[in-house]
Fold this protein.
Amino acid sequence: MIEQFSADMLLPYRPRTPEAAVDDGVDVEILRRFVRTQQVHWSDAFGREGYAALMRECVNAVVPLRPLPVRRVDGLAAELDTNGYVSLGPVLTDRQVEEVVAYLRTRPCYAGHHVFVPDAGTPPLRLGGEAERNRFTSYSREDLMLAPHLVELATSPTVVDLATRHLGCLPSFYSLNSFWSFPGHGVADVGQQFHRDYDDFNFVSLFVCLTDVDETNGPHAYIRGTHRLNSFLNLWAAKRKNPGRLKPETVRIMDGTRPEKTFANRWAGYGIDWFWEDLFGDETDLIQGPAGTGFVTDVYGLHRGMPLTGDKPRLIVWIRFGLYANPGTESATRFSRARLGDRVGADPVTRYVTRLILDWAR
Ligand SMILES: O=C(O)CCC(=O)C(=O)O
Ligand SMILES: [Fe+2]
């Protein structure tokens, strides 16, 4: 099936100018042709990397902007590629963190860890009692666009270059989210259980801690090497051959499971933390640090935000990049670029990278 599709299918399309690729909806064309002709599905663990390669080829064929020479992120990209995540250290200064948090504290938040459709349905909540009654509350995208420093970070050379290197083509910035996790809400739920995210065939997330994060208020747990089918299968095979101290129940489940099945359905993660903890305890890293700490992950790898055990809340931001207008794209209404003034550069690369989130005509 997959052989029937190639970048050539898109080559009749030629943007009038480099910038026109942005306005012509090139990615919509890629999505339409590719996903429809191939009937590709997010749970196809074997197909996924091939689909990503083809989409990358398409983006490079139809977007007349080549990836930048991005050698300065080589080390970071290599670590991201091998482990599935890389720590960046501080990406915002203390002062910048204070400014973002001070701004967000003036804004309403909404129940749930992601306001996909801002303001729809759920009432606005204030911090200081109301919001904390929820496990998570999140901010509207409009408020996040207007928050200081976040858009600048999303379009900063290091971040865009790293995403470019990981994807092999210019990335598409498709999601900006920030949410509080509050203590006192019992056992793990949603993103606090090991899972994979399925936004795209290849995608990365920059996470930034806006509060200090230690072992008590939600370090990000990532299982190294689970972001690629091959490295996951190798890890699985090694454990199966050499079960060591694994629980008998873990071994029994492995004996009755095809490992590639663990990429789909309930085996996507959710609900079997004990299994992943037992199987991959040695491969699990906890990422934490002072407010301002950033890390980039391939969110397809198994990960979770650890449930809060102390009494401190956690505020985190994510900024995500993928291959095209993927199903995770928050593009119901694009944010008017003019409202950002000169906070984002107007160069062709930035225009392309931000086109799903920013309306460059307004
Ligand atoms: O809270 C975290 O550290 C991770 C959240 C997450 O993985 C998600 O919401 O998909
Ligand atoms: Fe996730």
User: Anything to note?
Assistant: The mean pLDDT is 87. The chain has twelve helices and twelve strands.
